[in-house]
Amino acid sequence: MAKKATTKKDGEFAVIATGGKQYKVTPGDVIKIERLQGNHKSGDIISFDKVLLVDNGTDTTIGMPYIKEASVEAEYIKEGHYPTVAVVKYKQKSRNIKRNGHRQLYAEIKITAIK
Q1: Distances (CA, A) of 67 to 43, 61, 87
Q2: Residue 60 and residue 48: Cα distance in Å, rounded?
Q3: Do residues 26 and 15 lie in contact, with contact meaning Cβ atoms separated by under 8 Å?
Q4: Which residues does 41 contact at the CB level (< 8 Å), separation at least 6?
Q5: Distance between CA atoms of 71 and 66, rounded to whole angstroms?
Q6: Residue 55: how many CA atoms within 13 Å on its side-chain side?
Q7: What is the structure's pLDDT at 78?
């Protein structure tokens, strides 16, 4: 028998859009998202208004494309870099090789509330 996946706070979750990506979040989650515009410091409260879906355990609300009255609040924790990704370009017969590295920036946030 398969185990049913449970989330925190009676199955409450939301799907938000930020940085060109979508994230499924529940209260208490700590996630890494694309870097946020502006100057933020640890402890700042951030509100995401691009909410695509909200499920409180009993009923589900789906936006077209966003839910107007819904928002997700989060606490800004820190900003950092992902590990280095090697970028290699190689031309076969001329033996031309170019090596480069890339470290993507991220913002780490903790979801505090779904409204």
Answers
A1: 26, 8, 39
A2: 18
A3: no
A4: 76
A5: 10
A6: 12
A7: 96
Q: Which residue has the tokens 């909200």?
A: 54
C-alpha to C-alpha distance for 106 and 115, rounded to whole angstroms: 25
- How many CB atoms are located within 10 Å of the residue 20 CB? 6
Of the chain, the percentage scoring pLDDT greater than 70 comes to 91
Distances (CA, A) of 83 to 22, 86, 101: 22, 10, 10
Q: How far is CA 97 from CA 81, 84, 85, 94, 101, in A?
A: 26, 19, 16, 9, 14
Please tell me the distance from the alpha carbon of residue 51 to that of residue 17, in angstroms, as a whole number.
Answer: 6
Q: How far is CA 68 from CA 23, 55, 63, 92, 108, in A?
A: 18, 15, 8, 53, 25
Encode pLDDT of 98-112 as tens digits.
999 999 999 999 999
Residue 56 CA: distances (Å) to CA of 35, 40, 45, 59:
28, 30, 22, 6
pLDDT-derived band at 6, boundaries 50, 70, 90: very low
Q: pTM of the predicted model, to two decimals?
A: 0.79
